[in-house]
Structures are given as structure tokens and as C-alpha cells.
Amino acid sequence: MRLENKKKGGMAEGDMTPMIDMVFQLIAFFMVLVNFTDAEQNKLIKLPSSELAKPADTPLEKPITLQVTDKGMVLYRGRQVEPVDAEGQLGSVLDTEVSVMQGRGEDHTEATIVIRADGSTKMGVVQKIVGLCQEKGFEKFVFRAKQDTKKG
Asked: What is the model's pTM?
């Protein structure tokens, strides 16, 4: 008995549905990530411009973001915290951060305080915030500014 090898003249086509599904899942995943990073920013804060400002090389491991408005109010996780002294709300917020980190077995001195202060904020207010954070045992600080891309 003789078998004939018959070839079809058409091209083989693959099913693209799984690939399209995966692309949409990746797009949704990255959209969610972008939304989380936007949560750490507030539209009320107009960062000062600086020629020395540059994007961070690596993401911070344990950031605690404090935002300071032009009126000197501190925003923490989207809510207003006042006044800026050890007995005030900011002091208790920092105490809570310390206890949560210690409860997880982490060293709170490894956390980085990220200060996003409005360009019109008085330096004395920022100094008080830094001093309060140092009283609570925090040692690492990062100050945010807009990168000034103007070349003179």
C-alpha cells in the first residue's frame, strides 16, 4: 500500500486570542501601578525648581512621604496633619510608623522620610519637620524638587 504525502497550499495560522488577552492584562497591571505612584503626590504642592534635581537612581525601600503646603500644613497619606510639634498629630503619626515597623521586625532608622514641600513654604517649617523626625529616630531624608531643564 502506497501513502501519498499531500501538502496544502495555505499558510498555517495561529490563534492570537491568548496573546491579545495577555497584552490587555499587562496594560491593566501597569495602569494600576501608575495609579499607586500618583497617590504619593498632591496637586496642591508646587515643587520648587532646581538645576541640581535629578530622578532617583533606584526606588526607595521604605519611604514615608510628608507633603507640606504653602500654608505650612502637612499632608500624610492624603489627609491633613497638624500642628508640627512633638505633641501634635504629626508626632503621633510618626510614633505609629515607628511602632508598625518595629512590630514587623524592621529597623525604623532604615526608613527614608520623603519631604515634598511647596516652593512657597517657609524653610523654618521644613526644619521643624526634619527636627521632629530626628527626635523620633529617623535618620534618612530626601527632599523633592522639579528638575529645571533650562540651559542658560
From this structure: 0.61
